[in-house]
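Hi Y.,

Following your request, here is the sequence exactly as I used it, all 354 residues.
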Amino acid sequence: MYDLACRSFLLPVPIHRASISDLAAQLNLSVSTVSRALSNNSRISEATKKRVWDKARELHYQPNHLAAALRKGRSNTLGIVIPHIDGQFFALVVKGIETLANQAGFNLMICQSNEKVEQERKNIEALLNAQVDGILVSISLYTQDFQHLEEVRRRGIPLVFFDRIMESPLTSAVVLDDYQGGYDAVSHLIEQGCQRIAHLGGPQHLNICRNRYQGYADALQKHGYALNPALVHFSDLSMQDGREGMQALLRQVPILDGVFACNDLALVGAMQMVKQQGLRIPQDVALAGFSNELFDSLTEPMLTSVDQRCEEMGKTAVQLLLDMIAAGDQEIAPRHVVLQPTLLIRGSSQRKLL
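Below is the corresponding structure, written out as tokens. Let me know if you'd prefer a different format.
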């Protein structure tokens, strides 16, 4: 896997790489003869092939596979744009993508937007300039203008979204059933005896945050509880946001007894604040999150969380992209794949086992 992250690297000394022209000049042969010899063309004598390969080794010649692929109309490279590589989720999605992409003979160019729309635009531009054969995208937290992504489709480059998506019937995408994940987490808290459950939510223009919030709201209603706006706090879901959000919630509703967070990072911040206030987890406040991060098993108690089937999401997304590439100029109907979540119940929410 090539993690280029769309950065520029400075080399201390310019290095001249031997080309086919260099080989031809030193051997007093035509460029076409050298090219045929290197590709083991039967029209070239064995003696000439040996001369060419000996000189190639002497000059440390390396074939330019990218140039050769581009001459055939392919770069054999896929582009990926992700918000960040922090945490487990995107790392495992990329692992899933890499597994199938490499099996199919493709390399990867991985770009991070760092949750910045302008950087996401630059990422897309860099991948288009690199003539990648297809692009996989999970949009930034703040992306609401999709012109740069529409440009990808306009150019006829296969495009697949995953997790955070541009919601359109014209796009292919792979998502988790975030609504069901939120519904299951809140239903579990209610089953554990929680009656005043708060929600740490994210930006509602983003599909994953909106659907998780809706799952929270519908689970409350289904179990006979009214949605209390004072129990909902929206933020960008950093750990600090979780701390501040929990502090604000406890100030407004000091007797809340459960929390469902849109991601585990915010939930860790909330956990810190709950403990700082002298409250016990889960006896006083039960906690459930979303993402099943590696650190969930390192907290005390361990965090209940919704697993997002990360590697399967990556494999499914890249398979959609490979199918589109294989179809070539033939039109292929957009596909929308929804994966089912799994709630992993741990100590932070298990009140009935105490």
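The chain has twelve helices and twelve strands.

Thanks again,
Q.
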